[in-house]
Specification:
With 343 residues, this protein is an alpha/beta fold. The protein has 12 helices and 8 strands. Helix 5 crosses helix 11 and helix 8 packs across helix 12. The protein is globular and about 70 Å long.
Length: 343
């Protein structure tokens, strides 16, 4: 028997995308009487509320004063949710009609507390930056799928995630300090012994930043959140090692660029094989992993032509970590406003 589900779409000034998101959610292949849709409007000053209400009684709109973060906005509407399962989609998502049904089947197992859905990119043709970042989105999903297959808990993406409501209550809801409430929730559930799984067929298409400036704003928020999480959670030992394993998809491009550069230098100077071979092996392994991610997640191999751009952006992200540390030390403000990719 399918469980009742409350789908939450947190939204602040999302008039350009909220309509398409809600239309796709309303088209989900799931019993209407067992699904409620809640738009958690958080201090919007555009047409987000008007567009959301235009869908009629099927969409419940809850408006509130601006919260300090997305996690806080979600917590605000949780007590009003009727479903046994809480699903969360970002307002820029377009949801596959079978996404919800594929995700909730895992809750037949009482040991499963949460399900992480598969993310793809719906606007990758919009710019060179978006195209290259779609490689990253695909690689993240692949790596979570890979680790989950080895028995590891999956880490949530806040754009396409599902959690038992009673579990959310037990753990005190979402974090309001880190600004990466999805990752923090993943670690919280793992620490408390709950099981989370990845479902490749629970697909939602998200929006990638289309410019370097929007990418930088997005990754600065992620970097600030990561620093705050390390500060408050104080991860150590095996816990920290496990967390870092889930972050391999962020280290892979910089590592690939480093090995490619070192390999080119070695080949240029004709250094002996015993020096060149290990670097060549590491480079081949890295590239093979990325190619495998495209094949396994059924994405076109031709997009691998954009690898150099992804590698460059990933190294920019490394630099942003240092700026984020400084900003945290200085106590600079941070906002959860989404970085709008569409013009």
């Amino acid at each position: 028997m399918l469980p009742s589900v409350s789908l939450i779409v947190p939204a602040r000034n999302e008039e350009k995308v909220i309509g398409k998101c809600l239309k796709s959610i309303l088209s989900l292949s799931y019993p209407k009487e067992k699904m409620e849709i809640i738009v958690a409007i958080d201090g919007s000053n555009d047409k987000t509320e008007k567009i959301s209400k235009s869908f009629g009684k099927r969409v419940r709109v809850i408006n509130s004063c601006p919260k300090k973060c997305k996690g806080d906005a979600i917590n605000n509407v949780l007590p009003k949710c009727k479903g046994k399962i809480i699903g969360i989609y970002d307002a820029d998502c377009i949801v596959d009609k079978n996404c919800l049904k594929e995700a909730v089947r895992h809750f037949e197992d009482d040991n499963v507390a949460g399900v992480c859905g598969n993310l793809k990119s719906h606007n990758k043709n919009q710019s060179l930056v978006a195209r290259s970042l779609s490689l990253e989105t695909n690689f993240i999903s692949f790596f979570e799928y890979f680790l989950n297959g080895l028995g590891a808990n999956s880490h949530f993406s806040g754009k396409n995630m599902f959690i038992r409501k009673d579990v959310l209550k037990k753990v005190g809801g979402f974090d309001t300090l880190t600004f990466i409430e999805d990752i923090e929730m993943s670690l919280k559930l793992k620490d408390k012994g709950y099981r989370t799984v990845f479902e490749p067929n629970a697909i939602a298409w998200n929006e990638e930043p289309v410019s370097v400036s929007s990418f930088v704003k997005q990754r600065m928020r992620w970097a600030r959140g990561s620093i705050r999480m390390l500060k408050y959670k104080r991860r150590k030992g095996k816990k920290l090692l496990s967390d870092l394993m889930h972050g391999v998809y962020f280290y892979t491009p910089p590592f690939g660029l480093i090995t490619a550069t070192v390999l080119a230098i070695f080949l240029y100077f004709g250094l002996p094989l015993f020096l060149t071979a290990p670097v060549l092996g590491l480079f081949i392994f890295t590239m093979s992993l990325i190619v495998l991610s495209r094949i396994k997640m059924k994405e076109p191999l031709r997009d691998l032509a954009y690898l150099p751009v992804w590698f460059i952006l990933s190294n920019i992200q490394l630099v942003l970590i240092f700026k984020a540390i400084i900003d945290e030390k200085l106590g600079k403000g941070i906002s959860w406003n989404s970085v709008r990719a569409l013009p």
